[in-house]
Specification:
Elements lengths: L3 H15 L16 E7 L4 H18 L3 E7 L2 H14 L5 E5 L3 H4 L11 H4 L5 H5 L2 E2 L2 E2 L1 E14 H6 L9 H11 L1 E2 L5 E3 L9 H11 L16 H16 L24 E5 L2 H8 L1 H5 L3 E4 L1 E2 L3 E12 L6 H11 L2 H11 L2 E2 L8 H4 L2 H8 L4 E3 L6 H4 L3 H9 L5 H12 L7
Parallel strand pairs: 1-2, 1-3, 12-14
Antiparallel strand pairs: 3-12, 4-5, 6-9, 6-10, 6-12, 6-13, 7-8, 11-12
Helix pairs in contact: 1-3, 2-14, 9-10, 18-19
Length: about 425
């Protein structure tokens, strides 16, 4: 793993060669926002996404005809490098769309305090979504859209197994999974009782960690993901595979086009809200015949994973009035709905729960009605330095190379020096 210092040094060398984004034009010292500002976005990908953003920027220009926005399209895999390079070069983007969990690493240095009141914002957005943009009591970003992970199950397969309701505890989840698993005479898996391998393993583990009553970090920023409660989350993943044999390694994986919960190869899964669009495209009869259900993963408490995209602005930008106007616009109801609809995601604005888009998408509707159970990853400045190391630790437990506690203890020891790094 690269240290934070090494990462900054690397991007500093890179910045000296590429120069970063061009500086903003216009001083924006008062009055009507005006001038040119830059925007970096990891969403609105492809031609369809760019069309959606261009339509929204056209609407923005109608409100602020003297502001010109220069978008820079990227993806989340390259966003960290772009943000760090722009910061080191001293030529930061005026407005930045970034992920949940990304605020603490950049708050105060790259991101500006928006000077907004959390309680007031919670009237417009879910409080959990607002909190994703808050660090040290200050609001640095506004929520644009959310993407959630929660339990999905096949009602028809439940009924055939004589199971009348989704699981309410880890014990029930394991029992349901065992009863729903199907293997042929040779022992080859035909249907998984619970699919926890189609979704990013870190996000699965975190959801189970929160449901078990654990946390990633303590309130004062110390590692907590190897606490007894947190270990129980990884133990559940491991038990489903190694003890209950409700799923086999390799039976499914992240990125598969054949999704087991859709193709009758899994009875339950921990999945992403945009799976609804996949069901509509691949097997719409499952929706028409009411064969798909949802549930919040629950044990010590109910928990959904909350990811998503936030809008922020540069702490060093020279045109802050125009930048702040764009941040507010991108987090407004119309722009949130446009961004969410394009990706099948969850709008951040609470009033959109009554929109036709939400009413017609059962997974988005379910997520919005259970936002009190949403948890976000991150929370410490060094989060981006350690988050990718979770996968190897989790896989070592699932493969039986280490116990869940050993895997998480080793990860925690490495992470302890990184959590406060910038």
């Amino acid at each position: 793993m690269r240290t934070a210092a090494a990462a900054v040094l690397a991007v500093a060398v890179l910045a000296s060669g590429c120069g970063g984004p061009a500086p903003s034009s216009g001083q924006g010292t008062g009055g009507e926002p005006q001038g040119e500002i830059s925007l970096v976005t990891p969403i609105f990908e492809g031609s369809d996404g760019q069309r959606v953003l261009e339509e929204q920027l056209a609407a923005f220009r109608k409100q602020y005809p003297k502001v010109r926005v220069r978008p820079d399209y990227t993806n989340y895999a390259k966003l960290n490098e772009k943000l760090t390079t722009s910061m080191v070069s001293g030529r930061a983007y005026d407005v930045m769309l970034l992920g949940i969990g990304w605020v603490p690493p950049f708050a105060g240095r790259l991101l500006a305090d928006l000077g907004m009141d959390r309680a007031e914002l919670a009237k417009t957005y879910s409080p959990r979504a607002v909190d994703a943009g808050v660090h040290d009591g200050k609001v640095y970003a506004l929520p644009v859209m959310l993407d959630m992970r929660f339990g999905i199950y096949r009602k028809d397969l439940f009924a055939a197994a004589g199971i009348t309701a989704p699981p309410r505890t880890f014990a029930e989840l394991r029992d349901h999974a065992r009863r729903l698993t199907v293997r042929d005479a040779s022992g080859k898996l035909q249907r998984a009782g619970m699919d926890v391998l189609s979704t990013d393993p870190r996000q699965v583990y975190e959801t189970l960690l929160w449901a078990a009553g654990g946390d990633l970090f303590t309130p004062d920023g110390k590692v907590a993901f190897n606490s007894p409660n947190a270990v129980r989350g990884l133990e559940l993943m491991t038990d489903l595979i190694r003890t209950d044999r409700a799923l086999d390694i390799g039976f499914t994986k992240v990125g598969d086009t054949s999704i087991p919960i859709i193709t009758d190869r899994a009875a339950m899964a921990l999945g992403h809200n945009n799976l609804w669009l996949e069901i509509q495209a691949q097997r719409p009869e499952l929706i028409a015949q009411d064969k798909i259900g949802t549930f919040v993963i629950t044990d010590e408490r109910p928990a959904m994973f909350q990811g998503g995209t936030l809008a922020s602005m540069s702490a060093s930008g020279k045109n802050k009035p125009a930048a702040l106007a764009l941040v507010k616009f991108l987090a407004s109801a119309d722009a949130s709905l446009a961004a969410s609809s394009q990706r099948g995601n969850v709008p951040a604005v609470r009033s959109l729960e009554s929109s036709s888009y939400v009413k017609e998408n059962a997974f988005v509707r379910f997520a919005m009605s259970n936002m009190d159970s949403a948890f976000s990853e991150g929370g410490v400045p060094g989060w981006l330095n350690i988050r990718n190391d979770f996968k190897a630790a989790i896989e070592s437990a699932l493969l039986g190379q280490k116990s869940p506690k050993e895997a998480l203890d080793e990860l925690a020891a490495r992470a302890a020096t990184q959590v406060s790094g910038r």
